[in-house]
Every structure is written in C-alpha cells, then in structure tokens.
Amino acid sequence: MTSAPSYLPVVLSLVSAFMFALSIQCQNMGLQEGEPRTGAMIGVVASALAYWVFAPFVVQAGWWLTWGTVLFCIVGLFRPSVSSSLAMASVRRMGPTLTSGLTATTPIFAAGTAMILLGERLTPMTAAGTLFVVAGIAVIALRPGGVARSFPLWALALPLGAAFFRALGHPITKLGYDSVASPFFAGLVSNTVSALVLLATLQVRKATITGGVASYRWFIAAGLINAASLYSLNLALAHGPLLVVAPIVASSPVFVMLLGLLVFRKETITWRTVATIALVVPGVMLVAMNGPG
After folding, report:
1. I want to staple 167 with a disulfide (CB 3.0 to 4.6 A). Which of 33, 110, 116, 152 is the partner?
2. What is the pTM of this model?
C-alpha cells in the first residue's frame, strides 16, 4: 500500500471545515420558513440515509455483533440528535456565524472531560486557549450601559450545549473503535439511532412537520453536506495526526462568516461577532494543538 501524500490531511480538513460551514448556512436558509426541530430531524435523517447508500460497499456483517455497535448506539442517543437540535435552535436565535464560533468550543469541553474523568493536567496552552474562548463569549454576552443584544442571554446555552454533547461523544466513539475501527460504521450507527430518536420524539409529541418545500430542500442539503463533512474529517484523521487536523477544522467559523458575507447575505455581521470569532477560533486551536484530550 502506498502512503498518502503529506498534504492530504490538510486538504481533507479544509474540505471538512468548508462543508460544515456550508451546511450551517443551508440550515439558516431553511430556517427562514421552517423551525429548528423539523430542520434537525430532516437533516439527521438525510445524513443517515446518505450513509446507508454506501453501507453495502463498506460495512462488514460481523461488525453488527460487537461491543462497538453498542457504544456507537449510545452516542447516537445524543449525537447528532441532541447536538444538532441545539445547534439548529442556536442558528435560529443567534445566526450561523456566531453559532459556528461557539459550537467550535468542542475541544474545550473535551479537554475538561479529560481532566475530570481521566485525571489529565491543565497545561499552559490549554489554559491560554480556554481564556481566549471565555473572552470571546464575554464579548458577545456582556453589553455595557444596558445596550440590548439581539438574543436572550440564555441562548448562549444552545451552541455551548451542542459543543458539550459533541465532545461527550468523542471518548465513547474512541472506545468503540477498539472493536470496530471504522469511522464510517460509527457514523452510520450513530446517525441511524439519532434519526430514530428524532422520529420517535416527533411521534410522541404528536408534532407536525412545519415549513414549506423550499425549507425541506435546504434541510436535506444541510444533512447531506454535513454527512460529507464528517466523512472528510474522519478520513483526515485516518491519514494525519489530530494536531494537524483539529486546528484546521476549528477554522470553520471563518468560512461561515465569509459565506454569510459573500454568498448567502442573510445575516448582519457586527463587530462583536467578528471579535468573538477572532478570540474563539485561536483559543480552540491552542487547545487542539495541545494534543488529544
């Protein structure tokens, strides 16, 4: 087997970051007519179906009867079902650019989990990165002189909650890789379980799917693009170290902001949003470059 080119992880990471940014902008377009719960359900179902299209060519029958399948199912109970629902609600309240910046804090939660559960030490780089992130959140949350913000303060819990649940899925997924070392299979199982969870929730609540055909198309596009983004990320991790991949993927909020300004033009970018991105993205990169949590 020939080794992959040294630049391949960088290219795949950039593709993943860009496609994730594009999926968030598609979600925002869908939310012009639709609502977050419907959008999350349609997007996750579309992602699951995309995985199933390729499953016959990738998945081995023996993988289903392993401990890894159980762990991937556990992850699917909250990621992407809960994380996507929170992120979608955040896009509705706060816009795609700020949402992507705050959901990019996943490595911060991963590092915190490692310190609490695994006894890892707080390094200077992790501490510095965390301070950058906290400063970025403070810029957008605190308004001197009673100046009103465009969203309630509690809405910050939406993107940060999405980041938390994404981070929570990482260690469980890594444990699953001990049984089945297939990122594709992990994505297939977790997305399928999440799709079933969201469909069951819709049925229990007896909620109706709202929005028009145009919003459904945007949500489907977001789900398909997000599935491709996740697969690009997994391929990048398969061919390169986390220290190279994670900081590049963390640049996704920059792509979201550029797409919002140059292509979609559905969002007002304020100086506070730019300042938050400028603080959060480098902070996340510092934590990511400190090594896997």
Report:
1. 110
2. 0.87
